[in-house]
Each structure stands twice: as structure tokens, then as C-alpha cells.
């Protein structure tokens, strides 16, 4: 009972879905107490079914690892809206950008992850991604889709379709071809130049 009392103070309970930044959405399947070196240690047992993995997270480490409850509905709405915005791609070495994307994916912040999905998304009419871009895009997409599915009570395929529908609303991805596309190219170029100037400043 003692472990449950401490867990309840943190606001987490058994069978609840949570987000663990380094692994995404998991489910608390138990709250245990273990004896370690003579000390009583309270643990959340978190299952990541899709990854076939179980983690034991000390209740005292929850804040340090960034474990949190699922996003509120408004945050999910904001993340989905982010997908429809213009991609912001910095003119830096890919290795540096890849590190930034990875840090964003592992931040556990749904809106930040949505930014990665938006920036790395390629429609059928755009150039294909490199292997490493594709890997990061799929990692971000998977994280986002799982949390959106958990919050909105969808299955994974429905969540992915919802995300795709918002991505296709973005500039240069939908609507008529022609002058509008050319205009967007100029804007995107301008945004990249701004980024270069910011780094030079």
C-alpha cells in the first residue's frame, strides 16, 4: 500500500497510459516495492507493448526522466495544427540538424515532435528523403501517432491517417500547382536565409 500512496502523490495509477520521453507512450502495469541494498524502492512498471519492452522506473526518478501524463486535448490540437505550418529547415550540416531532430524527438514534448514530423515530411511530388532523414521522420511520426491515438482513443492506422491529413494541408503540399508553388519556394528560401543570419549574429 505504501508504494501506491507515493505513486498517487505523483498522480499516476496502474493501467494508465503515460509518455516516457526516450521511448514514447507506455502503460503502467504495476507499482512495486523492491528492497535494494537495505532500502525500500518504489517502482512504476511501465510496459511498451509495441516495442516488447518493460521498464521499471523508481517513483523518485519520474521528474528526472521526464515521465508525464498523456497530453491534454488542446495540446494534441496544437500539435496537429503545427503539421500544417511551413517547414523550417536550417541551412546547417545534416549531422547537426539530425542531432537537433533527435533531441526534439526524445524531448517527449508532443508539439516539438510535431515540428520534426512537419520539417521532414515529403509529399509524393517532393524529392525523396535520404535514409537517415527517413529514419528520423518515421521515429517522430511513430511517437506522435501513438500519443494522438492514446489521447483520442484511435487505432494506430486512424491516427496516422489523421496526421497525414494535416500534413497535406501545409504549404506546397496540396491545392493547385503553379504560381502558388513558386511563391512558397521564395518564402521558404527567405526563411532559411533568416536562419543563416540568426546564426551569424
Helices and strands in order, then pairings?
Elements (H helix, E strand, L loop, with lengths): L1 H9 L6 E4 L3 E13 L2 E10 L4 E6 L3 H4 L2 E2 L3 H11 L10 H12 L4 H11 L10 H22 L3 H12 L11 H22 L1
Structure commentary:
The chain is an alpha+beta fold and 201 residues long. It contains eight helices and five strands. Strands 4-3-2-1-5 form a five-stranded antiparallel sheet. The longest helix has 22 residues, at 131-152. The protein is elongated and about 60 Å long.
Largest sheet: 5 strands, antiparallel
- Spatial order of the strands in the main sheet? 4-3-2-1-5
Number of helical segments?
8
What structural class do helix, strand and pairing data support? alpha+beta
How would you sum up the global shape? elongated
Distance between the termini: 57 Å
Helix-strand topology string: HEEEEHEHHHHHH
Whole-angstrom Rg = 20 Å
Work out the strand percent: 15-25%
Number of strand segments: 5
- The average pLDDT score comes to 82
Helix proportion of residues, in percent?
40-55%
Poorly predicted parts: 174-201
